[in-house]
Hints:
The protein is mainly beta. The protein has no helices and 55 strands. It folds into four domains: 12-385, 7 Propeller (Methylamine Dehydrogenase, Chain H); 390-460, Immunoglobulins (Immunoglobulin-like), CATH 2.60.40.10; 471-531, Immunoglobulin-like, CATH 2.60.40.10; 538-624, Immunoglobulin-like (Sandwich), CATH 2.60.40.
Amino acid sequence: PPEKSNCPRSQKQADIWYFGEHAGIDFTSGSATILTNQDVMTAYKASSVMCDSVGNLLFFTNGRKVWDRSFNLMPGATELAGNVGVTQPCIIVPRPGEDSIYYLFTVDVLAFMPDDSYTTRGINFTMIDMKKSGGMGEAVTYINSPLLSPACQKITAVRHANEKDIWVIAHKWDSDEFYVWLVHQGGMSDPVISSTGSVQGGGYADQVNAIGYMKAAPNGNQLALAVTGSDNIELFNFDKTTGEITFTESYTTQISGISPYGIAFSPDSRKLYASLLQIVGNGPPSTPSYILQFDLDVGLANPVVIDSAVGIRLGALQLATDGRIYISRTVNLLIKRDSLDVIYNPTRPGSECNYNRLENIPGSRFPLGSRAAIYSLPNVIQSYVDIPVFTYDSCCYLDATQFHITNHANIDEVSWDFGDGGSSSDMDPVHGYAQPGSYTVTLTETFNGQTFIDTGTIVIHDLPQIELGDTIMLYSGATVNIYATPDMQSYWWSTRYTGPVLQVETQGDYWVEVKDWNCCTNTDSVYVKVFEYFIPNAFTPNGDGLNDQFRVVGLYRNITFEMYIYSRWGQLVFQSDDIDHGWDGSYKNKIAEADTYVWVVYVDFLGEDIRTNGDVILKGTVTLIR
């Protein structure tokens, strides 16, 4: 589905790449920009880079050493068990629910002897805490802790079905077994082991069977790998809930002298790409390299040859967050090239995927600024590149919804159908929906007379409901709780309070803005009026019509009322249960003496429209003046 961003997008962990011989790319702006600021790492085959959720670089590795964001070696991570000569020597996985904890998985080489014996450390992991070393990170525990040995040169990762935890997938050597570990908030689970597909193994002569990439599909439902020594590409179903893997089919390359190596899925997970290259020999290749495209709607049969390259080895393939697949290219380890090949439209079929072709200009490679990829590209968690064709900002009712095409490459014109009768021909249009609800949006791209259609369901959310009322009557000295809608993501009151219940004791206007879990906001306000009775401190019962009675003055009448007046000697001289019936200064039908008297008033409010802290008891003195 399209990605909504009313809640800010928080999946930019794969937006910075460092790889090869000091090469780098920055995707944080939405398009690829060359980075030439890194001169410390060489990664011949693959690397791994981790950013935070907004794209700030944290650290990177070639499997042997780790560098922090300032390009300094990370303490405790300078002699790790990865080997820079293996296909996928490393991958970095965050521990869910822990912003600072990361697991770095490393893969060692199988070092064979002619007698078929070998040495290897297999797959290990190291825990990195980014709170250490002043926030620059440090390998703190489980340094080079063993997980699996012997192992193939393959490791990939993808999210669990719960969208929080992460599966890490590897393949055992001399076996058909996949080992799948779940990284979760509590740590790491015991492996799920699936025996399926071919046996990847052999002796000294067959060690190239360990070589070749393995990738999970961005949507996590499939897994593909290259068994380089056997010239096979294998496809599997992956259960994101259980971690179980099931073989579906394989493809054996039909071109003599070259073997499958790099693997990448398209952003919609419906197409698979593989590189074929000459493995044997250290000099310039005598056989061209190829890029194959498989339509996974029909399977691995009858792939399309997208391109071939003479005198070049096409190595790693990796989908980026700009929706394009990048491909490393080199002659060998010594004779290198300072650019990447690019599949600009990997969701399109056949030659329409535009291999090295941008706006009808052939040879449109991505330059690396005198740096080289060699065989290398970063090994990323594939869920980080689960890229929709379009995204939309502002998914709340009454907002203007902004649509964005993720990959603008090779588009002559577009047509949008917003699913409510509205349409647009703008590249990144703005549309207002009259009602909340679900809408099927259709995007039609046209290039060179060919049309490419993609649909997605978007949800325009209603605003959170909130009702504070109109006016709250509050008796003086009391407090009242004003309740906003519970279980919201955030609250912001006019008093700068940030909780769901505001306690108030003073008169005034109060408002709150609430944000729900769809990041939609709504506001409401209420007026709090502080109410009190006026009770004079003197009266003059002389018959002039002014202040002739001592009584409680106030408009609110829905009460039970009692008033008692006492002389200075404690003698009850007057009582009333009617707020409108005051004391006229007499006692037993005689004029009371001019003096100071003590009064007590009890008020019980009968309705719920006056907020108090309980029954009101008022006390004071009044002077009778003659």
